[in-house]
C-alpha cells in the first residue's frame, strides 16, 4: 500500500517523549501539564450520582442545557457578558477537540493562520491537515510580549484566523488589556476569526486580571473562546471542555462537531453542571495555584536557575544558561536520565527550534513532589 502523509514532518510530541523518559528512569515528572493530586471528591461524587441516576446515554449534540446555562452564568459573573446557552455554547471532548474543530470548520486550502511561537503543539498540525498555512510570529524571551507592528505586517488578504493563548502555555505570561485592544484594532472591519485559547483563565497571579476576548465587544463578535474543565478542576483525563462564540460562528462549528464526536460524556456534564452552581470552586483557584508557584520558587531561589515568576498557568519557565550551554532538548533529557527530573524544553515550540536555554516545569504538584524536584534543581 502507498499513501501520502498529510503530516509528513510530524514526529512524536515532546510531551510523550519526556513522559516516557520519566517513566523509564523513574524520574519526577514535571513535564506534562497534569496535577498529581486528586480532583475534588464532591465533583467525583456528583458524577457518580449522575451515572447512578441514568445519565449514561448520548447527551444533546451541543451539551446538556443545564451545563451550558451554568457556563453562561459563569461568563456573566466573571466578565459581565452574555453567551446564549441555546446557541452560543458547545461542550467538547476537551479543549484540543474544540481547537481542532474550529480550525476544521473555517480553514480552507491556502488560508493563512497567524500563530505566536512558542505555541502549543496542537495548533500547527490542525492548520496544515486542513490545507491552511501557519504564519508564525516569534515571541522573544524572557517576557514573550507581542510585537503588534510585526502582526500587522503579516496580515494579508489570505489571513483567515489568528490564534492567541492567554495565559500562555508554555511561557506562563499573559496578554494585557492593551494587547487585546491592539488585536481588536487590527482585526476591525475584516473577516478574520480569532481563536482564543483561554484554558488557564482561572490561574492568574499577583493581582493581574485575565483579559478575555469577550471583554472587548468587536473582538467578541469574531472570536471563539476555548476553555477546559480538565485544567480547571484537576481532572485532565476526563477530556472535558467547551467553547463559546456568537451564533453564526457556532453554527458552523457544530456542523463539524456533530460529525466529529457528536456529543461528550453525559454523566460528567451533569456533575459539572451541579458543581458550577458554587462559583468558589473556580474562584479559589488563583490563590491555590499562586501559593504553589510561590512555594516552588522559594525552594529554588538559591539555585543557579534564573526566572521571572509566571503570571499565569501552572507552568514556570526556568533559564539554565548559568549552568550549561547545552541545547535545551539535550539538557532536558540528561536532567531526566541522570538527575531524575523531567521537564519540557521550549525550543521545540519556537521558530527554527530557537534555543533560549529555558525549560518549562509544571508546579501543579503536591508540595512533597515540589520539594523533591527543588532538591535536584538546587544541586545543579
From TrEMBL:
The keyword Transferase applies. Gene3D superfamilies: Aspartate Aminotransferase, domain 1 (3.90.1150.10), Type I PLP-dependent aspartate aminotransferase-like (Major domain) (3.40.640.10). Residues 26-376 form the Aminotransferase class I/classII large domain. Its cofactor is pyridoxal 5'-phosphate. CDD domains: AAT_like (cd00609). Keywords: Aminotransferase, Pyridoxal phosphate, Transferase. GO terms for molecular function: kynurenine-oxoglutarate transaminase activity; pyridoxal phosphate binding. It comes from the Bacteria. One of its GO terms (cellular component) is cytoplasm. InterPro entries: Aminotransferase_I/II_large (IPR004839), Kynurenine-oxoglutarate_AT (IPR051326), PyrdxlP-dep_Trfase (IPR015424), PyrdxlP-dep_Trfase_major (IPR015421), PyrdxlP-dep_Trfase_small (IPR015422). Belongs to the class-I pyridoxal-phosphate-dependent aminotransferase family. This is Methionine aminotransferase. It comes from Bizionia echini.
Amino acid at each position: 500500500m502507498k499513501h501520502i502523509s498529510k503530516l509528513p514532518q510530524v514526529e512524536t510530541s515532546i510531551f510523550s517523549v519526556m513522559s516516557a523518559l520519566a517513566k523509564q528512569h523513574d524520574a519526577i515528572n514535571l513535564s506534562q501539564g497534569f496535577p498529581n493530586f486528586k480532583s475534588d471528591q464532591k465533583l467525583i461524587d456528583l458524577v457518580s450520582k449522575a451515572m447512578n441516576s441514568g445519565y449514561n446515554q448520548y447527551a444533546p449534540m451541543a451539551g446538556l442545557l443545564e451545563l451550558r446555562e451554568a457556563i453562561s452564568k459563569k461568563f456573566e459573573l466573571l466578565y459581565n457578558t452574555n453567551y446564549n446557552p441555546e446557541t452560543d455554547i458547545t461542550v467538547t471532548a476537551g479543549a484540543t477537540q474544540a481547537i481542532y474543530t474550529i480550525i476544521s470548520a473555517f480553514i480552507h486550502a491556502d488560508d493563512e493562520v497567524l500563530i505566536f511561537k512558542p505555541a502549543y503543539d496542537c495548533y500547527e498540525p490542525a492548520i496544515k491537515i486542513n490545507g491552511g498555512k501557519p504564519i508564525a510570529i516569534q515571541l522573544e524571551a524572557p517576557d514573550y510580549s507581542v510585537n503588534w507592528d510585526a502582526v500587522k505586517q503579516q496580515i494579508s488578504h489570505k489571513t483567515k484566523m489568528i490564534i492567541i493563548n492567554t495565559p500562555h502555555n508554555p511561557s506562563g505570561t499573559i496578554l494585557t488589556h492593551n494587547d487585546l485592544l491592539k488585536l481588536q484594532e487590527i482585526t476591525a472591519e475584516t473577516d478574520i476569526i480569532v481563536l482564543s485559547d483561554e484554558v488557564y483563565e482561572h490561574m492568574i497571579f499577583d493581582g493581574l486580571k485575565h483579559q478575555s476576548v469577550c471583554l472587548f465587544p468587536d473582538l467578541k463578535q469574531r472570536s471563539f473562546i476555548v476553555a477546559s474543565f480538565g485544567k480547571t478542576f484537576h481532572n485532565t483525563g476526563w477530556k472535558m471542555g467547551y467553547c463559546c462564540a456568537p451564533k453564526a460562528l457556532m453554527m458552523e462549528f457544530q456542523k463539524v462537531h456533530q460529525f466529529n464526536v457528536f456529543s461528550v460524556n453525559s454523566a460528567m456534564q451533569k456533575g459539572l453542571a451541579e458543581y458550577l452552581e458554587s462559583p468558589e470552586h473556580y474562584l479559589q483557584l488563583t490563590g491555590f495555584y499562586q501559593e504553589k508557584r510561590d512555594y516552588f520558587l522559594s525552594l529554588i531561589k538559591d539555585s543557579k536557575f534564573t526566572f521571572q515568576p509566571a503570571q499565569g498557568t501552572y507552568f514556570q519557565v526556568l533559564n539554565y544558561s548559568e549552568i550549561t550551554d547545552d541545547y535545551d532538548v539535550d539538557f532536558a533529557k540528561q536532567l531526566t536520565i541522570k538527575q531524575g527530573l523531567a521537564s519540557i524544553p521550549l525550543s521545540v515550540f519556537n521558530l527554527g527550534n530557537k534555543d533560549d536555554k529555558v525549560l518549562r516545569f509544571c508546579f501543579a504538584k503536591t508540595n512533597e513532589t515540589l520539594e523533591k524536584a527543588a532538591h535536584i534543581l538546587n544541586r545543579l
